[in-house]
Amino acid sequence: MNKTKKRSAAYLVLGLATILAITLLNSCSSADSAPVSMGELDRLHLYDLDSAQFEFTKEDVRGSLMAVLFSPGCDHCQAQAQEFYQHIDQLQDITIIMIGSEPLERIKDFSVKYGLSKFKNVRFAYSSPVYVMDLWQIHNIPHIVLYDKDLQPIKTFSGTTPVDKILAGFKK
Description:
The chain is α/β, with parallel strands linked by helices. It has helices spanning about 5-30, 75-85, 105-115, 130-135, 165-170; strands spanning about 65-70, 95-100, 120-125, 145, 155-160.
């Protein structure tokens, strides 16, 4: 290979490397996809249904936030899921994080069975019961904690709660 061809090949590789670097930097610098603090929920060490660490981003935020601790086999939690599904149009501006401490397969099955996995404002996650108990004093499930837009807790509900009562809790 002569010098001209080697130099051309080197420039081509350098150019492709530059384009790749710029593309990666642009995709990583998006403010909407950068992880953000979830306030006290960061203590839960949440994991998505694919077992990856839960990364909450600005594009996930829909006004306020509701964290719901649930168990897939709990009758009250199943009733709460049905309540959410029936009133999902009223909850569209609220990010809902459904947190379970059972095997991911059971949490996935629950998300599909009650139809909540298809809504963009509803996410399912796993957290160790040790972290959950350390964060919240739980007497009944579902355990629902409402957060304002600054991710500060504003209201807690224990047991099955009507959506109207939850929405009223956000207004206080």
